[in-house]
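Review form for a predicted model. The reviewer records the input and the model, then writes brief findings.
Reviewer: anonymous (R2)
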Amino acid sequence: MLPTKIVVIGAGSASFGLNTVAALMGSGRLRGSHLALVDRNAETLGIMTRLAERLNREWDADMTLTSHTHHADALEGAAFVVSAIEVGPREELWRQDYEITLKYGVRQPYAENGGPGGFAHAARNIGPVMEIVRAMEDACPEAWFINYTNPMIRICDAIARYSRIKVVGLCHQIYIGYGMVGYVLADELGIEVPEGEISTHADPDIWPKLMQIAHQATQKVDILAAGLNHFSWMLDLRLKATGEDLYPHFRERWAAFDPAFEPLTRRVFDAFGLFPIAGDEHLCEYLPWVSDPQTRPWEKYGISLYDWERMGRMRSAGHEWIAAMADGRESVDGLRYCDSEGALEMIENMAGAGQHFHLAVNLPNDGQIANLPAGAIVETPGWVSGAGVRGVCAGELPEGVAELCRREMAAVRLCVDAAVHGDRQAALQCLLLSPCITDMDVARQILDDYLESYREYLPQFW
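Model under review:
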């Protein structure tokens, strides 16, 4: 395999940066490559660079390492750009996205990827992302952009429709589906379930337990899922050893399972006949039945908010741990097991003309889902090779499910058009398509508040 040049943007991140850098540097197939680390935060970039230098020495990666506080200095000659940028401070802005709508009587279920919060989140991130891809068009026009930034489908849609850069979006949400299937079928599949609460909630005390189950389940079953990122649906479920169709048995076991486990997923599965794999706290963002202020369905379904304060503290603690490893005060042995959530597999197999089947990739719809709009970003399995990434054709979604997806796809397109052009009318239409908006005046008030509150991040609207 020939060495390649990889640019990691957002390399100073305590989670994405650490996992991605460690996974790439631990790859024997990428030995001798050029790894360019980019982050606007010079302090966290410096810490990650020192750690990368240590890994380069101790793991004999033989990589050329460079670090840059601006992407323009790193892109020349790159074959891959891996990005998880986030306009920060992340937790503070996310909380503000949620609290602004409360002033107008709108309680969003999660406020990250769908609804009004999804608009604000995407609009802030699309500008910086488009700066990167514009620079790529000059410096490395044939490079692949591997995206982790949320809202996933809105970021990927902006790149796909408004640039010449090839883009694939990667997300680990497919493993939530494996975790739920593994939990429900644990006895039949011989899966060991950790003690304590199990759910799909974004709780650092719970998430690792679900991932333990998911890891075991991936060895036992195959899931074919298709739809949108964080809004994907299980089309097929098979026992790996024999190819047996497990979907009928899963339906039966799910119906008899603890009704307190993922109650929103349960209701949607019952209503539409297809199992949604994202888990309640992501699924809720795309549905119009979880934000009514009178019936308060978030209480009925136990939808909890993201713990912004705790996650912010964990981010700081993560940087302290990275610094300890960079300075030799902590072992780096555990980093051998870091998972880049797909970037490593993409790069190894595209650069080395390999063959890899990936469980979930976000790409423009070129027939992967027949009854969703062509060109819109969809999530299906994909084949990775020297020719790039191709989505697997998954057929059609049931009409009710497809219509839920189409409504979100229309909102995505309007959001992207609004953010790229500074188009307030498109932005208003995007909010009017939000599942939690029921009043046109309220939609305009929320939009005006968002644009004023985030004026420094959204100059295109002024």
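Findings: DSSP finds 17 helices and twelve strands in the chain.
Further findings: The mean pLDDT is 95.
Recommendation: see findings above.
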